[in-house]
Amino acid sequence: MLALFLRDLKLATRAGGGALTGLLFFTAVIAVIPFGLGPDLKLLGRIGPAMLWIGALLASLLGLDRLFQAEREDGALDVMAMQETPLVLVVLVKCAAHWAATGLPLALLSPLLGLFLNMEPAAIGATFLTLLAGTPAITLIGAMGAAVAVALPRGGLLVSILVLPLVIPVLIFGVGAALAAVEEPAPFLPPFLILMALTLFFAVVGPLSAAAALRAQAD
């Protein structure tokens, strides 16, 4: 499992792997917002958490279609379905590697981009925590869509269509928790705990559903 994690991490971070593309896309989305909204610093600071979350969500969707594509192309998917190691565990490890290469860098970059949007320190910290807690859910949900579309030659659009409705609750509670940290008397903890619950829920449902879809593809 460690070898699989390191292999997927290496594939995602090398040239053309998708991790750098997501970071560049995230940075580009946030960089153009001040030019579209104008020099209103208060407005930028107020909508900053939502913009960071939307940018991170869109950036996370970019490489999801390649989550199982390499295994499908070289025949490793059939081997994974027949080996003794449960396919659910394999999917979970691949999701962890994908998040470490894509979701985690987005969360780490968010404080710097938050300064660019004139966000308050409390809002920057809250947004970072919510992205750290919520981006794994996006990857786990994306694994289900990627498993369904793995056999299609151009399944990237289909993956986005399948995943987007499911990630809306993650977006809602992620933004709600980040905004609650700076808007009184809205509490930060309840939406953050719901966000954590969503991540834990999809940590169970996501690998199970993806493994079932991959097994059906192998059959």
Could you explain the architecture of this structure?
This protein has 219 residues and is an all-alpha fold. The chain has one domain. 81% of the residues lie in helices and 0% in strands. It has ten helices and no strands. Helix 2 runs parallel beside helix 7, helix 3 packs parallel to helix 8 and helix 6 packs across helix 8. The longest helix has 30 residues. The radius of gyration is 18 Å and the shape is elongated. It starts with a helix and ends with a helix.
Unreliable runs, pLDDT <50, ≥5 residues?
A: none
Question: What's the total number of strands?
Answer: 0
Radius of gyration: 18 Å
Domain tally: 1
Q: Structural class of the secondary structure composition?
A: mainly alpha
Lay out the secondary structure:
Blueprint: H1 2-13, H2 19-37, H3 41-61, H4 69-74, H5 76-82, H6 87-101, H7 103-116, H8 121-148, H9 156-180, H10 189-218
Which keywords apply here?
219 residues, mainly alpha
Q: Nutshell version of this structure?
A:
The protein has helices at residues 2-13, 19-37, 41-61, 69-74, 76-82, 87-101, 103-116, 121-148, 156-180, 189-218. By secondary structure, the protein is an all-alpha fold.
